Amino acid sequence: MARGSDPRVDHHFDPPVAVIGNLRFTRGGVYADYLIDGLPLVLRPLRTHERGSRFYRNLARALPSGWSLSGLLDTTDPNRLMRNLVGNFAHRDQWVDHCRSWEPTFNPEVAAPGAPVLLEERRRGWLTFPVDSGRGGRTAVGTATRAKDWVAGRDVESDTSVAAYSRLAAEVVASLPRQFSVRPASPAQIQWQHRHTVFRGALRDPMPAAGVGPDRLTATDFVRPGIDEGANAVRSSWWPTMRPIVRVYDADNPEGPWSYQALLPVTHFPDTGLRFTKAAYLHALDNVDSPAAIDWMQHAIVRSPERAESLNARAAKNIKDQMRQRGRMIEEDDELDIKLANTREYNAQIKANPSERELDVATLIAVGAPTVQMCEDAVKQVRHELDQAEIAVSRWRGAQSKLWLAFNPGNEKLAHLDEFRDPTSAHLWGRFTPLISTRVGDSRGTPLAENQNTLRRSVILHDPEGCAQRQRNTGLIVIGDPGAGKSHRAKLSGIEVVLRGGKVDVFDPGTHGEWGQAFRNVTDTAVIDMADSRFSLDPLRMFDFEEAGAVAVDHILPMIGVPADSDMENRFTLLVSPHMRHAAGIGSMRALIDYLRAQPDADNDMLLGRLQAWATQPAARAIFDETLPPYSPTQALATIWLTHRLGLPDADDILNPHLYDKLPKGARAGMAIYGLIIDTVQRYQFLHREQFSTMIFEEAAELMAYPAGARTAHRITRQGRKHATGIWLISQDYRDFAAMGDKFITQKWLFAIRNEELAAKTLEWAGVDPQLYPEVVQSYYEDTSPAESADDEDSDDDAFGKVDPSRMGEGFIVDERGRRARCRFLGAPTAQMACDIDSTPPQAVPA
Amino acid sequence: MAASDQAATGEPAKVFTGIRDVPIYAGESSTGNRLPGGPYRSAELIAIGLIIGPALWWFRTHQDGGFTVLAGSAVAAVAVTVILRMILPKRRPSLAARASFAWGSTLPRHVCGASPRTGSGHGPRQ
Fold first, then answer.
1. A295 and A347: one domain?
2. Average pLDDT of the residues in A329-344
3. Which of chain B's ends, N or C, has fewer CB atoms near its CB within 10 Å?
4. Last residue of a domain, which of A354, A369, A394?
């Protein structure tokens, strides 16, 4: 073809003749299109991979011959993302304003020039199978069925035919594993798929949502592709470019945009196969660092075991015959021996189970970009990425336009796919787990983190309010080294809960009141110093009559040093029981002391002596002073409880009985007050189910060590869901939560941990098997928010030792469904908010 | 993300590449009787037949120069066989597919889908 020539019509490149529902009518047959989700296997244990591979096996066995599965790279619509951020809180102006401040993070149209933008990309699974050849698909019987229909002059678009095709498609889909969420593609989505195939990498239109658009389309609604092998029509020389590339464009708009595409059939797999996690080589394509779009598709011919055995027998006979025919030639080459061994192994595989199916699979990788250079660069990276799994692709000059047809259902027979097929059993194919979902987080909520499971980034949303609605556990544990960013992100998420109208109670042990500073620009915030004794925390006054005694036993006895299950403990328990208090008129701790003092032989009463001694302590005034008004929860949405003046003991002091006995009275009183406040807040939050609320514990180790505190935390993790109440626990060591019983807490945010042993154990605690993912563990302690270490004359001395801003907040996340991701937690969207939540000490100003 | 060599990783994922892709050679005319210079691929045998066959006919029908033609054809058959052994693919894609690719590379196609509105056979819709 001469350069600059007009394209010649080739009907093999025609778009679909019509689309009705999810049925695609082409000159080469009728197909049904479906969207299919990948399985969440990222960072999962081996048993989950094994289970996932069995789902893929069952999928392959249930599909008719001639099916294709594609992974298409989609871009998320920033406006849709914005709508998901706002969620159900559009009536809250402050929240909507806050969401607007997030928009430049992911929407290039509103981002400042040159500012980094998180362009979200998602791998979309696309399943297509023929429905005009009967249940078996493209088999000999299917071909006969089509021939019969052709002879009979069947109108494939008649209502009767469409109903029959739809029934068949529904029957097939009903037999597929539910885990894939297979759902019919809408006509607008099929139009998107065709357009995406034409403009791969050159245009990035987001896939339309389901239910959007008409219910049928005709050929005029589709782009008419122009196909230019080797981009020869626009070449500058007289000679053919001989370039293994194809230029694809809209033939009705030849000026552009143009997509340069390279089609790469996979031609080599290691003879010994691929083990987890390298087996998921198609997932690895998402780790190619290129702005080019990289898609893949697998086309499979399905055969019964009997047919496969027959083909194997013929192949084995041929091989044996060739061993004789080739004579001495085979002495130099063991190719035939290997093929015979493989044939026998495969035959054993296919015979093992009568429900097994042979898949003769061709795998094609498509790279699309707006420029040749970008496409070439991406192809190099694809080769490099696959080489790590010892997989090779070929790239044939002159074949690119035909290979492109593989993505155009109805014409895939002309795509030379048969030249690149490799047989395997559905069982062994399933172990490749071709489509893996990297999605983590919620569909709505605040932008929490950048998903770094692959280099195709996406935003992880966090919706704590919706968690309870979804019947998930509302607990959250945040782990990380000091300065890793855990408080930073928790503060931001806490502020966002308040902006959405939720209630937050923060227990801040810091001496700088950093949480108060973080919330200083948030209206409805109250800061309370727990050591001020402005109100009474007497459990017998504050709590319901029926439960007040139990609360007093929980908090007062440890404070006054009464051992568990002692005579004194039993007596106190009896005295504060509802029956006794009612009979003796005991309405407060002071009244209890008065009652004991009135008893005979009061001077020798050890319990009275202890209570009287404690009643004189200034630190315990909130418990024994009847003149103080009882505590009443504030109406503020955010309450910051400052605990540092309580003089709380550390976890070791509490856990070690010998150290606990030596604690000063002030520390024990502080612990009791701390526990009483927590119990009070928890009860208040449980009573108000109509409003989401959460308690945030900074440095939660002490709370966990204190049995009453651990019990409260455990209660919230088990019952908080029913009461729209959450608990966020922040600490540096996951082992702090062992006493509480943390097995019900699914959500975990892991920030940088530098200690190798602790990092490995923390990941294991989060469900990441260090044996299966040793490189992940290594990258956790070595390459998570690493400090600048460029040690040369030209390096920035100020930056040395600090974390690069673009790498701050890196870590791992486990969401409420147990999905895992390596991620970078996002910081505040505005400079003002970043300043508010920053706990870094200010630099000294020279005098 | 790679699994450690020591970690249990279960059964491998596998495809059986090329087990049915066996190039056919003919090395024996009958059991135990090996063809000289063999084994031969089908294309080689066809090429040899196409060269030697006419040469033998010429040898039988022409008295002068028959040996020259026969010798020349033998040399040509050897040369063609050597060339074919170099270019015939030992694995997929097949020779036909490779020829199609080569054709597409040297005479590249510039095509487009048919326009449903104009019915025009050539060129972009106006």
1. no
2. 87
3. C
4. A354
Question: What's the pLDDT score for residue B118?
Answer: 46
pLDDT band at A797 (very low <50, low <70, confident <90, very high): low
Residue B68 counted as domain residue = yes
Interaxial angle between packed helices A305-325 and A335-351, expressed in degrees from 0 to 180 and rounded to the nearest 10: 160
Judge whether A663 lies within some domain. Answer: yes
Higher pLDDT, A167 or A707: A167
Is A112 strand, coil or helix? coil
CA distance to partner chain B, nearest, from residue A50 (Å): 8
The verdict on A323 and A418 lying in the same domain is no
Residues 6+ away with beta carbon under 8 Å from A294: A73, A285, A286, A288, A365, A366, A367, A368, A378, A382
Asked if A363 and A403 sit in the same domain, the reply is yes
Instruction: Read off the amino acid at residue B102.
Output: A
The count of structural domains within chain B is 1
The reply to whether residue B108 touches residue A232, judged by beta carbons under 8 angstroms, is yes
Which of A294, A322, A354 lies at the terminal end of a domain, its last residue?
Answer: A354
Please judge whether B110 and A7 are an interchain contact, meaning their C-beta atoms are less than 8 angstroms apart: yes
Hey, which residues 755-794 in chain A have their CB within 8 Å of chain B? 769, 771-776
Q: What mean pLDDT is predicted for residues A403-424?
A: 94
Lowest mean pLDDT among A81-85, A369-373, A702-706: A702-706
A339 and A223 in a common domain:
no
Name the percent of chain A lying above pLDDT 90: 66
Q: Check whether residue A192 and residue A249 sit in a common domain.
A: yes
B55 falls within a domain: yes
A26 touches chain B (CB under 8 A): no
What pLDDT shows up at residue A564? 79
- Tell me how far apart the alpha carbons of residues A672 and A556 are, in angstroms, rounded to a whole number: 6
Tell me which residue range forms the domain holding B82. 35-87
Do A513 and A635 lie in one domain? The reply is yes
Report the number of distinct structural domains present in chain A.
Answer: 3
Residue to substitute from A42, A252, A411, interface B, most B β-carbons within 10 A:
A252
Question: Which residues in chain A are contacts of B112 at CB distance < 8 A?
Answer: 7-10, 13, 224-227, 251
Q: Which amino acid is at A86?
A: V
pLDDT per residue as tens digits for the range A260-306: 999 999 999 998 999 888 899 999 999 999 999 999 999 999 999 99
**Statement to judge: residues A338 and A470 lie in one domain:** no
Question: Residues A251, B112: contact at Cβ < 8 Å?
Answer: yes
CB pairs under 8 A between A and B: 247
User: How large is the average pLDDT for residues A374-399?
Assistant: 96
Domain of A409 in residue numbering reads as 11-85+122-304+357-430
Chain B contact present for A332, CB below 8 A? no
Closest partner CB to B101 (pick from A318, A319, A398): A398
Check CB contact under 8 Å for B101 and A227. no
Residue A275 to residue B92, Cβ atoms within 8 A: no
Residue A636 — pLDDT band, cuts 50, 70, 90? confident
Chain B residues near residue A313 by CB distance under 8 angstroms: none
- B117 is a domain residue: no
Best B4, B5, B6, B17 member to test A by mutation, with max A CBs in 10 Å, is B17
Q: What is the pLDDT of residue B4?
A: 45
The three-point CA angle A272-A277-A281 to 5° equals 75
CB environment A498-528: b (16+ within 10 A), e (fewer): bbbbbbbbbbbbbeeebbbbbbeebebbbbb
CB contact under 8 A, A322 and B24: yes
Give residue-wise pLDDT tens across range A95-152.
999 999 999 999 999 998 888 899 899 999 999 999 999 999 999 999 999 899 889 8
Assigned domain for B52 exists: yes
- 3-state class of A298 per DSSP? strand
Question: Is A228 close to B116, i.e. CB distance below 8 A?
Answer: no
Domain check: are A227 and A176 in the same one?
yes
A264-273, A481-490, A663-672, B14-23: lowest mean pLDDT where? Answer: A663-672
* B88 vs B64, residue with greater confidence: B88
Query: Phi/psi of residue A329, each to 5°?
Result: -60, -35
- Residues of chain B with C-beta less than 8 angstroms from the C-beta of A241: 108
> Has residue A98 been placed in a domain?
no
Percentage helix, strand, coil for chain A under 3-state DSSP, each rounded to 5: 45, 20, 40
Residue B25, both tokens = 């050679």
pLDDT at A76 over 60: yes
Check if the interface score ipTM surpasses 0.90: no
Nearest CB to B121: which of A9, A229, A277? A9
Would A115 be classed as within a structural domain? no
Asked if residue A612 belongs to a domain, the reply is no
- The chain B residue lying nearest A422, using CA atoms, is B17
